[in-house]
Amino acid sequence: MNLLKQLLPLIFSANFLSTVIRVATPLILCAMAACIGKQANVQTITYEGMMLFAALAGTLGTSYTNSLIGGIITGVLASVLLAGIYGYFNIYLDTYDTLLGIAMNNFSNYFTIFLLFVLIGRKADSSTIVSHNYPIIEIPIIKDIPIIGTILSGQSLVTYFAIISVFVANFIVYKSTLGLRIRSVGRSPEAASSLGIDVRKTKMIAMLISGVFAGLAGEFMSMSYISFFTKNMVAGRGFIGIAASNLALGRPMYGLLYALMFAVSQVIANQLQMLQFTYQFANMIPYIITIVGLCITGSAEMRKEKQGGKAKEDKKKDKKEAKAE
Fold first, then answer.
1. Side-chain-side CA neighbours of residue 182 (13 Å)
2. 3-class secondary structure, 137
3. Helix or strand or coil: residue 13?
4. Residue 132 included in any domain
5. Strand pairing of 155-156 and 136-137?
6. What's 144's DSSP letter?
7. Rounded to whole angstroms, how far apart are CA atoms 212 and 158?
8. What's phi and psi for 125, nearest 5 deg?
9. What is the spatial distance between Cα 26 and Cα 234, in angstroms, rounded to a whole number?
10. What span, in angstroms and rounded, lies between the C-alpha atoms of 51 and 221?
11. Dihedral through CA 101, CA 105, CA 107, CA 111, nearest 10?
12. Which listed residue, 63, 91, 178, 244, has the most CB atoms within 10 A of its CB?
């Protein structure tokens, strides 16, 4: 009870919600990447590796070009490159997606350390080089409003990109011709092919678009969340973004809600650690919620499939009975 009394005032505060939005930023962007991939039925765990690659490339890009724009472009291109490599092996060469994803995540983890050592002589982080970070945006008028200003204003530029990305992803998936093709190849590649749609090309385009979102998520980690790159700094956020997409069944708007839900659980876990609660259990909270959510979603989908199967059987029986009469 004492712990609860200490925790509740922290949760019901503007600073808590502001922190949730900040923590949710990479999860939202990765969830949007995974939603587009899921709609095309290109489901991969490589988003973790894409984010890590983009985090390093963005930091190095800003340092070598002495420009924030240069770092943004470098980070996104690195992520898109990794997405393209995955797409080529998985879509065109039909490799096993899980094994390929594990291999590419491991490659990203160790290659970023190797690249860091070769370029700046350090294996742990890039704190010795000067790099640019995304600016903090103070929104006029809103920043002066009590509570709302604390929550919505003063966030990183990437955070506002993340919010916009939800609408962009939703438009791509549901409002554009490309989105229609992506959904068609994801649901029935044979039918899409019969209509003249290049299934592999469409899936590759979806993968490259998802690489852009994953790249921005990775850049947030090294150019906003903290101001330099550290090894394995993504720390499972890519997997949580994928889980949010799976719970949302590839729908961007629902992906946003699930990403926020995971962010809330993560911030609560951090608050519990500050209150000297057992940190191992606190760290488990986001993943426990992920498992429970996936179980609920999976069971709901199984019920729908069973009901759909029963409905088809009933229709067949009705047809047979009608013929017999």
1. 27
2. strand
3. coil
4. yes
5. antiparallel
6. G
7. 13
8. -160, 175
9. 9
10. 8
11. 150
12. 244
**Residue 2: inside a domain, yes or no?**
no
Task: Give the chain's domain count.
Answer: 1
Tokens of 69: 């724009």
Q: What angle do CA 250, 231, 228 make, to 5 degrees?
A: 90
Q: 3 — alpha (psi -120 to 50), left (phi > 0) or beta? A: alpha
Q: Please give the Cα distance from 129 to 126 (Å, whole number).
A: 6
Contacts 24+ apart (CB under 8 A), 158-162: 158/25, 158/29, 158/134, 158/216, 158/219, 158/220, 158/223, 158/224, 159/21, 159/22, 159/25, 159/220, 159/224, 161/29, 161/216, 162/24, 162/25, 162/26, 162/28, 162/29, 162/32, 162/216, 162/217, 162/220
Range of the domain at 94: 24-252
Cα–Cα distance for residue pair 311/304, rounded to 1 Å:
10
**Residue 34 one-letter amino acid:** A
Within-domain flag for 8: no
What digits encode the pLDDT tens for the residues 17-69? 899 999 999 999 999 999 999 999 998 899 999 999 999 999 999 999 999 99
Let me know: does 286 contact 265? Beta carbons within 8 Å.
yes
Q: CB count, 10 Å around CB of 107?
A: 15
Measured in degrees and rounded to the nearest 5, phi and psi for residue 198 equal: -75, 100
In a domain, 113, yes or no: yes
What's the predicted TM-score (pTM) here?
A: 0.87
Please report the pLDDT score of residue 69 as a whole number. 92
Query: Which residue's structure tokens are 């490599």?
Result: 85
Tens of each residue's pLDDT in the chain, 325 residues:
566 666 676 677 888 889 999 999 999 999 999 999 999 999 889 999 999 999 999 999 999 999 999 999 999 999 999 999 999 999 999 888 889 999 999 999 999 999 999 988 888 888 888 888 899 999 888 888 888 888 888 899 999 999 999 999 999 999 999 999 999 999 999 999 988 899 999 999 999 999 999 999 999 999 998 889 998 899 889 999 998 998 888 999 999 999 998 898 888 877 777 776 666 676 777 778 778 877 877 777 778 777 765 555 555 554 555 455 4
